[in-house]
Amino acid sequence: MQPDPRLEETFIIFQERLGTAAHLGLSADEPFASDDPVGVGGPLRALTLRVQGTAFALLGLTVPTIAVDKAGLIEYLARRARARRIPYLIVSNLRDARLLPVPARPGDAPDSLKRYSPLYQIATGAGGSLSPPERISLADRADEIAADLAALHRDGSLDLVIPDADFFVGRLTRAVNVLKPAVKQALRTKLGMDPAFGQELGEWAVRQGIPADLRSDDFIEAVVRQAIYRLLGKIIFYQSLRRAAPHLPSMDLSGLDTGQVLPRLRDCFAAAHKIDYHAVFREDVVDRLPFPAAASAELRDLVSDLNTRDFAHLPQDVVGAVFERLIPPEDRHALGQYFTPEPLVDLIVTFCVRNPDDAVLDPTCGTGTFLIRAYDRLRTRLGVHDHSRLLSQLWGVDIAPFPAELATINLFRQRVDDPGNFPRILNQDFFAIVPGGTYRFPPLKSPNFPATPPVGRRSPDRAPLGGGRETLPNNGKGEGWIDEPIPTFDAIVGNFPYISADRIERAVKGYRQIVARRLTQDWFRAYPDGFTFKRKADEKQHRLARQNGLDLDAFLEKASPIISTYADLYVSLFWHAAAFLKEGGRMGIVTSNAWLDVGYGYALQRFLLDHFKIVAILESRCEPWFLQAAVNTVVTIVERCSDPAERDAHPARFVKVKRPLAELIPWDLRLDALNRWTGLDGLVGRIEAVGRPAMTRTSLLPTRTTTFASVPCARVCCAIR
What is the number of alpha carbons within 13 Å of residue 286 lying toward its C-beta? Predict the structure, then answer.
């Protein structure tokens, strides 16, 4: 019988993935091939899998036309396994797979320890070579099997339950409700007894943008809330990380006295810190808050509950969903943070991420939803399969430490075992990030590396925003760091904060001036029309200097952007983000729709028209895209273009979305990822076809004209039904 070529390719994939999973203690040997073994009814490939050097499982691969439950197939593999004293079988027909103990006697039919979810994209009939998405799915299946074998060898069973967002949110909310009052009272007591700790905590709070009034209930609340969220995030990630690094100590707190709980957790985090090169587990001052007996007892119970869950197969979107649902809406509103639904994220990413080499930036990345979806599009649709390369193309920035850490975790979890696993997430104010700057990340870790700070920081040749000096580890030498230059980007995507600059100014005096200085450094030389002067004499001298081609640097300190002091912060974020965008690159941003018709929006309208093609401005007419936000939102898609004639000739499309995104994008993002991205390409293509000479309007129907202040290019209005 002529074997299905997909079987040969799959066997090679499994050999490579399972045979090189040394981080799990796995190896593979004794490959075996037969085109028609007795009782099987088709070709078979087999491989002995060892854990810590001991033969632990026999893998049998056959073709999709042969069921993985077929008695003849199971018995043939069982005879080989019994002869080699191998306790477990893994049987796969490429599409289906099961893990089971080796039957003790011929004719026995033991229950499966695990049945793997079918890979529906693999056809049951004979086919040609594997497609790239099929290769990815099979490689992921091999990695899943490797993690299961390591867990089975370590724990003796696979009885753990796969956790979901509902479990996490319910259990963690209960923990927060118990921990917060106990820790708040303990912190008040400590601040009254330890002035040095209070000063250190106050300095930390200022760096996080928290007003450092140690006597304020709001201060106590903010600090304790962040400390608890950080601790819970570390516990969750440690459990997940340990499945890929089984040598880490078990987080077993059962039977411990409450005074031993926090020290044991810190011991676990310290062990993880030795291999965690983006240092989620580093200790900061907020991690040293006191946890009284009641709080420690709740932590012990929480960890005991989490130990009943299987973190090896934690869905990749759970961590972000937990953060979205765990943080109360009023806290998110105070931070100006809202979480973008994945259908909307995918639509924006499809507009902006168009080529395999695209570098992508989210300037206010939160937990990393845009970056995770860009990762998936590059991998699934655009054919970039190397994890390290993918991470090098994705950059995120967020001022809040906890979401920045979760973004790092979310990217890290895409391939825990990859030695180049190096998320470019910067925990800073985006206005502190300089175009062309170099930023410093912790090194790839080994036990010989010193401990390092967390997500990226400025390189020492860049002073911190507003002056000052960076303090580097290792006596200021910064040994072992990776200095990474920030690139210019092909795509900038995100959901900018819903907060006014004036509101931030009331909490952080001088913030508006810091932002204005950054925008002046970004754009004054290239876009002098976007700036004004307080003194008429300076304005006149500047005009004369421009007319005579003189150096304008002397006016840098005197110029101010034309942006109103009452403008929402996203206006300034648009300006600053554009300084990182390549010619021809695209920016897709969610904001309120206020800039289209309020006075302060003029500065943004003028800026976009002077530097971009207006690809599309989309708004929903059938569903709110953000249930929690008390604002109407639009999506702005623009393309950087320095040619005025080309900008003016390009149609500006105003798009009304009149069907729910779930209907326009019906494909499941996990089970049908390739068709989802292909369908999105078609949807975006239809939108971009409107306004072209040969356009069709089959489902994009003309609507009334919409105004856009001083638009010199053609206006095209359409609706998606």
Answer: 24
The three-class DSSP label of residue 214 is coil
- 634-656 pLDDT per residue, tens: 999 999 999 999 998 998 999 99
The dihedral through the CA atoms of 433, 434, 435, 436 has a sign that is negative
Contact status, residue 456 vs residue 404, Cβ threshold 8 Å? no
Buried b (16+ CB within 10 A) or exposed e, 109-128: eeebbbebeebebbeeeebe
Give the residue, 419 or 180, on which the prediction is more confident. Answer: 180
State whether residue 528 is helix, strand or coil: helix
Of 464, 402, 404, 465, give the one whose Cα is nearest residue 228: 402
Quickly list H helices, 160-257.
165-193, 195-207, 217-244
Helix axes 318-326, 401-412, angle to 10 degrees: 160
Strand partners, 161: 309
List, for residues 577-593, the tens digit of each pLDDT value.
999 999 999 999 999 88
HSE, side-chain direction, 13 A CA sphere, residue 260: 7
- CATH 3.90.1570 domain locations along the chain: 5-155
Residues 6+ apart with CB under 8 A from 49: 18, 26, 27, 28, 55, 56, 57, 58, 59, 90, 149
For 352, the token pair is 């902006």
pLDDT in tens, 276-327: 545 567 777 888 899 999 999 999 999 888 877 666 555 555 555 565 566 5
In the block, tokens 């004794």 appear at 30
Mapped onto helix, strand or coil, the DSSP state of residue 308 is: coil
pLDDT on residue 467: 33
In terms of Cα–Cα distance, which of 322, 340, 338 is closest to 330? Answer: 338
The whole-number pLDDT of residue 275 equals 65
Residues in the chain: 721
pLDDT digits (tens, 9 = 90+) for 353-412: 999 999 999 999 887 889 999 999 999 999 998 888 898 999 999 887 667 777 777 776
d(CA 138, CA 175): 38
> Top-level CATH class of 5-155?
alpha beta
